[in-house]
Design goal:
Elements (H helix, E strand, L loop, with lengths): L29 H13 L7 H21 L3 H14 L4 H13 L3 H14 L4 H13 L3 H14 L4 H9 L6
Helix pairs in contact: 1-2, 2-3, 3-4, 4-5, 5-6, 6-7, 7-8
């Protein structure tokens, strides 16, 4: 499910070597996927799907994006995200981070639209539903907030923050 955040197609490249075991409670070994992508891109005999080159570019831009956010340079972060959006259109990662930027600037309706685009693109990621619910609640869009909190609760029950949001909106007792 975490790979849905980056709009990663399946199947994906995997480096040769010993089989990798990933326990259910462990995070996906994203570094291994990146290694597989780099090996695939370096293989002259197999033309890779263009999406893998674009995903590698997103990964490469991640450090620049993190630095921009750490420096509170929202303009730079937005330029990086605009470039990533052109490389990998429809990516929930881009929608989510753009929503954060416009929300910081006080552009709540645009942030809500971008969070909605993120959940539309990756509907199985509870944290996207939580951000949507929180902003909808903040904006007084209670029906949308309740729906988002319920979806987050369905995806990751019991979800204390979703339950708290539902209680604040009078849907559940504390």
């Amino acid at each position: 499910e975490d790979l849905d955040f980056y709009n990663v197609p399946r199947p994906f490249p995997w480096p040769r070597g010993p089989a990798l075991r990933v326990e259910a409670e462990m995070d996906f070994p994203f570094r291994t996927l990146v290694e597989g992508i780099r090996l695939l891109l370096a293989d002259d005999e197999t033309p890779p799907n263009p999406v893998w080159r674009r995903l590698a570019q997103i990964v490469d831009a991640g450090e620049d994006l993190a630095e921009a956010f750490e420096a509170a340079d929202l303009d730079r972060a937005e330029r990086i995200l605009d470039r990533l959006d052109r490389l990998h259109p429809g990516c929930p990662f881009v929608f989510f981070n753009k929503a954060f930027i416009v929300r910081q600037r006080g552009e709540k309706p645009e942030a809500l639209r971008l969070y909605q685009a993120a959940v539309d693109a990756a509907p199985n990621l509870e944290f996207l539903w939580m951000r949507l619910g929180e902003l909808a609640e903040e904006m007084g869009k209670n029906r949308q907030a309740i729906s988002a909190y319920r979806k987050a609760q369905t995806l990751l029950a019991p979800h204390p923050q979703a339950l708290e949001g539902l209680a604040r909106l009078g849907v559940m007792k504390r």
